[in-house]
Amino acid sequence: MSSQSAYNEIELLKLVAEGNKNAFTEIYNNYRHKIYSIAYELTDSTAVSEEIVQDVFLKVWVKRNMLHEVTHFRAYLFTITRNYVFTALKRIARKESLEENAMEGTPFYNHDTEDRVLNNEYTRILQAAIDRLPEQQKQVYNLIKKEGLKREEAAAALQLSPETVKSHLAQAMRSIRTYCLTRLDVSIALMILIRHY
User: Fewer CB within 10 Å: C terminus or N terminus of the chain?
Assistant: First the structure.
């Protein structure tokens, strides 16, 4: 990165910290492909990588008032990315019934106070969103996303067709994301909302 582009990025980050959505969009466009590439290389999943890109920039936006304390934005951004990738890898490993120690030795993941507070807020809002779902959507979401069941297993448990389960899950994810985005006051993230949900 040249000194000129570094200077421009510093100015952009100042604007993002002040809530400037155009500056945020420019930062997003500058880094989204790189973050996607990192996520895809490690997860080998298009859907998971797209979700990680969204989550990373949601966090940047939610914590935008802290950007003035960030001295190396690229390192800051990639640390957030690696944290989300690690979480995704653990979820994938659990879903595929891999050994519990499969992820042992992975060197990145920090549980600092800010992250715990933010995660608690995410958890609270997420649970509220789940609680508002229609009963069958809630059951499908809990079985697949919380219990780790495959679509066919959830369908068998609920005596529904796999396609009905797929439809319920898609509707639940749309409702949850809309609710969370509204409550987190990050309407800017609608620009990067993943449509396949």
Answer: N
Q: Give start and end residues of each alpha helix (H) in 18-45.
A: 21-43
Q: Each residue of 133-178: pLDDT tens digit?
A: 999 999 999 898 888 888 899 899 999 999 999 999 988 888 887 7
- The pTM (predicted TM-score) of the whole model is 0.47
Assign residue 80 a region (left: φ > 0; alpha: ψ between -120 and 50; beta: otherwise).
alpha
Identify whether the C-beta of residue 38 lies closer than 8 Å to the C-beta of residue 88: no
Token look-up 């690229």 returns 74
> Rounded to whole angstroms, what are the CA distances from 13 to 20, 41, 78, 115, 139?
9, 27, 16, 20, 41
Please give the CATH architecture assigned to the domain spanning 111-186.
Orthogonal Bundle (1.10)
C-alpha 155/C-alpha 151 separation (Å) is 6
For 80, half-sphere exposure in the C-beta direction (CA atoms, 13 angstrom radius) is 26
